[in-house]
Amino acid sequence: RTVYVNGDYLPEDQARVSIFDRAFLMADGVYEVTSVLGGKLIDFDGHLKRLDRSLGELEIRNPLSADDWLAIHRELVTVNEITDGMIYLQVTRGAPGDRDFAWPDPETCPPTVVLFTQSKPGLAESPAAKVGMKVISIEDLRWGRRDIKTVQLLYPSMGKMMAKKAGCDDAWLVEDGFVTEGTSNNTYIVKGNSIITRELSHDILHGITRAAVLRFAREAQMEVIERPFTIAEAQDADEAFITSASAFVMPVVEIDGAVLGDGKPGKVAARMREIYLDEMR
Ligand code: PDD
């Protein structure tokens, strides 16, 4: 596999970054994940916009233009022959000589840029979408700026492991009694003709898939209500689902052991998945 590191396209085993890189020492960096379907980048502009926002919040300079980002993504899709899969990009504050809590002078410390691809043949035809996900709920113990897409992913990773140990697929994070989001996705419940999802704030990542799905839902005359909900309300809902760039729209059929409806993926989730995939690819 060919990867991109700071201007160079290299075989993955020749790619190098400094041990002083602040992402390695302090998780001082941000990332984006863009899906590829049939060789096409899905919602690429949305991901670039959010990258800009994450970098801006952390006062890291965006080292590349939108055209450059696009060219690198296209090149990696081509050289790695990605039909279905994803591209991961990471920008970090770079590698100053010494470890220091204070940020280095950006003039002397350029950001580190890394991109790689993962091939996932048949990504959109995921059998999981026909079965649905089982989730557990856990306390949300992440930091307070979840709107910035940082590489600080230890707690979400622990949450995923807790879910796996419980025989489930993912964990929904709960703060002050209300669901914030999943370990790596935004969360929704459906009641009648209404889709309910938590409103945007510093508490959740502003999902690129979320924005598209809510737009398509409104166009399909569904009511969209942006407000927090509890696990009890979700267990009592008609349906539930999640969205992310890599899972698109994925139904949830069980929450903390409580089966939703008849235990099969809901109609609204299936429809939103179909609309999303039709519109985006
Ligand atoms: N995760 N919330 C969290 C905490 C996330 O990590 C993600 C994405 C989302 C969904 O955002 P989007 O629709 O823009 O992908 C919500 C990516 C896919 C990941 O970490 O792999």
TrEMBL record:
Name recorded for this polypeptide: Probable branched-chain-amino-acid aminotransferase
Pathway stated in the Swiss-Prot or TrEMBL entry: Amino-acid biosynthesis; L-valine biosynthesis; L-valine from pyruvate: step 4/4; Amino-acid biosynthesis; L-isoleucine biosynthesis; L-isoleucine from 2-oxobutanoate: step 4/4; Amino-acid biosynthesis; L-leucine biosynthesis; L-leucine from 3-methyl-2-oxobutanoate: step 4/4
Function: Acts on leucine, isoleucine and valine.
EC number: 2.6.1.42
The UniProt record lists the keyword Chaperone: no
Keywords: Amino-acid biosynthesis, Aminotransferase, Branched-chain amino acid biosynthesis, Transferase
Catalytic activity annotation: L-isoleucine + 2-oxoglutarate = (S)-3-methyl-2-oxopentanoate + L-glutamate; L-valine + 2-oxoglutarate = 3-methyl-2-oxobutanoate + L-glutamate; L-leucine + 2-oxoglutarate = 4-methyl-2-oxopentanoate + L-glutamate
Enzymatic class: transferase
Recorded GO MF terms: D-alanine-2-oxoglutarate aminotransferase activity
Recorded family membership: Belongs to the class-IV pyridoxal-phosphate-dependent aminotransferase family.
